[in-house]
Amino acid sequence: MDRRSRFPVRKFESLEAMKAEEYEYWQHRPDYERIGAVSELTTEAYRLKDPAFNVPRLQRTLVHLQRTQG
Prior knowledge:
Shape: extended
Radius of gyration: 18 Å
Largest sheet: none
Number of helices: 3
Order of helices and strands: HHH
């Protein structure tokens, strides 16, 4: 796979159009992915403030429960 196909470039007419597409993307991601992204951004923000600061990551769940339909 070449570099160009791995990193597609998208052009938008305005900042609002870009934000709308980004919002739509995150609305279709599963909850655990959105929470993971927030955790990663928070960790990076703390590291920007103090590079020596060691922030623990979110712990993984050991049990995954399925809700019953109905």
